[in-house]
Amino acid sequence: MKELKEIPLFSGLTEKQLLLLKEIVHIRQFKEGELLFLEGESPDAFYIVKTGGVDIIRGAPGGKEIILERMKAGDFFGEMAIIEENKRSATARIAKDVRLFVIEKRLFIKFIKDNPEIVIKMIAELSRRLRIANQDIEDLAFYDVEKRLKRLLLRLADVDAKKGEGIIHNKVTHREMAKYIGTSRETVTRLLHKLKKNKMIKLAGNKIILYSPEKW
C-alpha cells in the first residue's frame, strides 16, 4: 500500500481508499520493445508506471513514428480512451524494462466515480501534457531542427540553476530524439556533435550534461 501512496495521483487518498485501491490493482512486467497496446484498439485497462519507461507513439507518413511522450515512474496513461469511450489514440511501447500498476477498465471507472478527487489530479496532469503538445506544435511550426533539439534536451533535463547545469540521467538514444522532434537519426547525431564541439553539452556514459542551459 505504501507504493500506491507514493504515486502522485494517489497521494491524497485516505487509508480506506488506498485499501480499496489495493484490491483492484495488480502488477505486470514487460520487457523493452514489447507492445502494450496499439493505436486503434479498444481500451481494457488503465496503467501507472512503477519502474522503467513506456513510450507513447503515433504513426507518421512513410512508416515513420513520432514519440509523443515517455512515461516514467509515477506517470499514468491509458485513461483518455476509457473516459472518452473511444479507441486508443496512440500506441504504447516499452522503452525500458517496466513494472506497471494495472487497473481493469471497469474497476477504474468505478473507482474514479467513487473518488472524484482523483479526476481533479488527472485533469491537472492532462493540462500539463496539453501545454507540452502545444509547445511541440509551436516548435515544428517556428523553429529549425537544431532549436527543436535544444528545446527537447531542456525538457528532458533536470536543471540545477545554482550549478548552471542540466542533466539528462537516462540517456535517450539518437533515434528516439529524432522521433521526438520529427527528423532523422543522422541529423540528431550531427547536431549533438556540434553542441559538444561548442561546449554546450557533454556526453558522459548514460548521461547528457547541459552547460549554461539558461542561455539556450
Automatic annotation (TrEMBL):
Domain Cyclic nucleotide-binding residue range list: 9-129
SMART domains: cNMP, HTH_CRP
Domain of life: Bacteria
Pfam family, one: HTH_Crp_2
Span of domain HTH crp-type: 143-214
GO cellular component entries: cytosol
This protein's UniProt keywords: DNA-binding, Transcription, Transcription regulation
Protein name, entry field: Cyclic nucleotide-binding domain-containing protein
Gene Ontology molecular function: DNA binding; DNA-binding transcription factor activity
Lineage: Bacteria, Bacillati, Bacillota, Clostridia, Halanaerobiales
